[in-house]
Specification:
alpha/beta, 2 domains, 399 residues, TIM Barrel, Immunoglobulin-like, single chain, 10-stranded mixed β-sheet
Length: 399
């Protein structure tokens, strides 16, 4: 059996470059449901921006549409607030940008083009949002209606395809359920095939449960279903995950935010996280924990993103009982890193998730017998599933 494992360790050359090989956002974000009500009515935009900057938040997602209702429209609260405080939504976005914060919008969708009875459709609203000068992207908030609506698949496809036709290079994501089990009628692949990121609503406080349990369920289910979709030929559905965590002060215990962020960054290697939501965070410890979380190692000016896939030799080697394995991916990829014994039997799976471009490392704390082991990386580019990388190396555990 070990021969089969060794035979699969084929190094595939990678000569193709990608113009869009990373997400435009990462690290810490924040959802803001009613921007016009934030900080006592939102009249002091500088207070909002200062709070975000002080907590290391580099992007927000503000609600700008609900079905066929467009919030940046004359007479609507968001529009009135933007005009009163900055002259226009364009100027609001420009002010955020000048402070290093990107602005995305989210729109709740109902799978019915005219939910509120307007002559224009919710697809029109999505395209109007992406037409706003300087906007950095759109998050599609699809929930219960897409579980139950009879024509949900056709509605999702028509909605997304119109967005892509009008904004082929626009950054678009999906925010929906954190658990696929129980929502198997939701048109997951219809949406995920057509967006660039998946933002599951990982709300442990709504269950209620712990961040550890909710993150494990979310990760396990998306990993399993994504593997099935890819095996069925739908590799486009394998999208990077950036979970949304609880920010409701009434349901977030001390250390929850720290745990959520640490799991996302160090255990699951997600490219970013966000919280729901700004106006409902009142406990100081939530802000304190979020500010301290997601510490990114600084990169020297001369250091660049890896231009190829690599798998390094583990260190130390021989080892007892733990060893570190480093690897690099040149483009966002679905990565698995697996350990096998001398018989070719899987001993551990150290990584199984979408990884951003860059250098990574993981640690194997071996609960195994002394002997020779093999570790293998399998990486499939999200941008181009034909770009694959597989390599196998050996290591020795000595007790």
């Amino acid at each position: 059996m070990i021969a089969a494992v060794l035979a699969s360790a084929i190094l595939v050359p990678h000569e193709k470059s990608f113009a869009n090989d990373s997400l435009p956002i990462g690290g810490k974000g924040m959802y803001i449901w009613q921007l016009w009500n934030a900080n006592g009515g939102g009249k002091n935009l500088n207070t909002i921006i200062t709070t975000l900057k002080n907590n290391g938040i580099t992007w927000i997602v503000a609600k700008m549409g609900d079905g066929d209702s467009f919030y940046n429209q004359s007479g609507k609260n968001l529009y009135n607030w933007a005009v009163l405080n900055c002259g226009s939504m364009d100027s609001v976005i420009s002010l955020f940008h000048s402070n290093g914060i990107k602005v995305l919008a989210f729109q709740y969708v109902y799978a019915a083009p005219h939910h509120w009875g307007n002559t224009w459709s919710e697809t029109d609203v999505a395209n109007w949002i992406l037409d706003i000068k300087g906007i950095d992207g759109l998050m599609i908030d699809a929930e219960i209606e897409y579980d139950t609506y009879a024509s949900r698949v056709a509605a999702a496809q028509a909605y997304c395809d119109s967005i892509r036709a009008h904004h082929p290079s626009g950054f678009v994501g999906l925010t929906a359920w954190a658990r696929i089990n129980g929502h198997t009628t939701f048109p997951w692949t219809t949406f995920l095939d057509r967006v660039q990121v998946n933002m599951p609503q990982t709300y442990w406080g709504a269950r209620p449960t712990t961040p550890q349990n909710e993150m494990n369920l979310m990760s396990t289910q998306f990993t399993s279903y994504t593997a099935t979709w890819v095996s069925q030929g739908d590799s486009a559905a394998a999208k990077p995950i950036m979970p949304i965590g609880d920010g409701y002060s009434s349901v977030v215990a001390q250390n929850d935010i720290t745990t959520f962020c640490n799991l996302s960054q160090s255990t699951y290697h997600y490219p970013g996280v966000s919280l729901w939501e700004y106006t409902q965070i009142s406990h100081p410890y939530i802000w304190t924990e979020y500010a301290a979380a997601w510490n990114v190692t600084s990169v020297s000016p001369g250091e660049e993103r890896p231009d190829r896939f690599t798998l390094e030799q583990n260190y130390p080697n021989p080892f007892n009982p733990s060893t570190t394995i480093r690897y690099a991916v040149s483009t966002p990829s679905r990565v698995t890193l697996t350990v096998f014994n001398i018989l070719g039997q899987q001993t551990a799976q150290l990584v199984n998730s979408v990884q951003p471009a860059g250098s990574h490392e993981t640690v194997w704390n071996a609960n195994a017998a002394s002997g020779l082991y093999f570790y293998r990386i399998d990486a499939v580019s999200i941008a181009d599933p034909n770009q694959r990388f597989t390599q196998l190396k050996k290591m020795t555990l000595v007790k």
